[in-house]
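Minutes, methods subgroup
Present: GH (chair), OT, SY

1. OT presented the first of two proteins processed in the latest run. Sequence and structure tokens recorded below as shown on screen.
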Amino acid sequence: MLNKILCLLVALCMGLTAAAQENNEARQLLDRVADAFRQAEGVEIAFEVRAPEGTSEGRIRLKGEKFRLDTEGITTWFDGRTQWTYLENSDEVNVSEPTAEELQSINPYAWLSLYKNGYMLKMGEQADPRLHKVMMTASRQGSELQCLILYVDKQTLRPAKLSLVRKGDREAVVVLVRSYQTGQKYDDALFTFDKRAYPTAEVIDLR
């Protein structure tokens, strides 16, 4: 039953068409959400990811374009240009410079700039009166992120849930926000890999 629901979600996203006024309403809401996020300074978010391959929990700390993402067995740092990904099982660190589209599958909050280009926007019907529902559909079939459905708390303008459909996937990935703390003070060093903390790790430069 779950698979059928998710496949229906994908089909709905692929077939979306939006009137100009609907686009404007959705875009204005996302502008407000993005502004609220940027004004919050450092942000710490605990979340749960429900994907076809299983369920996991994690924490992401953000400061502007920088982030540190901690999930089960994997830690990712991004300083705005360079990304380091530590894999606990193999004790190795992969170093890369991801594109904007590649970041979409790593950082759930990359939509803060993503929605401005290449996506059709539409407000969706939402059963929960406390939430807004915004639907984003890629205008190009080759986009890494084909569809994103965002649920936003009406009072705080904070994301409550994200549903993502990636290129080549038939099922959605759902990100549930468990806690959201703003005003955090982070040193820039938090967003870069410190070799001293992982002395035995093999560093693999993929740039």
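2. SY then presented the second protein from the same run.
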Amino acid sequence: MKVYQGRPESLEGREEKERRVYDLLDSLKIAYDRVDHEPVMTIEACQEVDESLGIEICKNLFLCNRQKTRFYLLVLPGEKALKTGELSKQIPSSRLSFASGEDMERLLNVTPGSATIMGLIFDPENQVQLLVDEELLGRPWYACHPCVNTSSIRLKTEDVFGKYLEAVHHDYIKVTLSDGNK
């Protein structure tokens, strides 16, 4: 899998939401590497992408409370499993479950299998609260999809949680999730 620096030379055939990610990153002068690939729907399917970028793509889970009045995007290392009780104790919400694909599309403009922090571009009203496992914040690099699961990008973690989140007017809640093997 070939690694490219920055946006594709031609954006023909690329979805508008992917283009908007590249436009924003470029306007913020955030450097990124990119690989294009077949659609990947799971963390397990990302193994070849991970190897190409030299990093593990994080897991992105779109969650909501029971009443479906609060929505969360949880980013965590791929090897960690979600324990909703553990997470609920750290945020102002209980009874978390997976939100619907329809809500994901409505709030983040991404489809299941494409959930990404980059989707916050499409949430100007801050209806989605970002939750970040502290382990990711300590890593030098962060990898995710640019709102489509046919490309993946690698950026500096400090750029994502600094310049990018500031530009899309979102903050995050740091959470500590235990290793899925413990």
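Chair's summary of item 2: Residues 16-27 form the longest helix (12 residues).
Next meeting: continue with the remaining queue.
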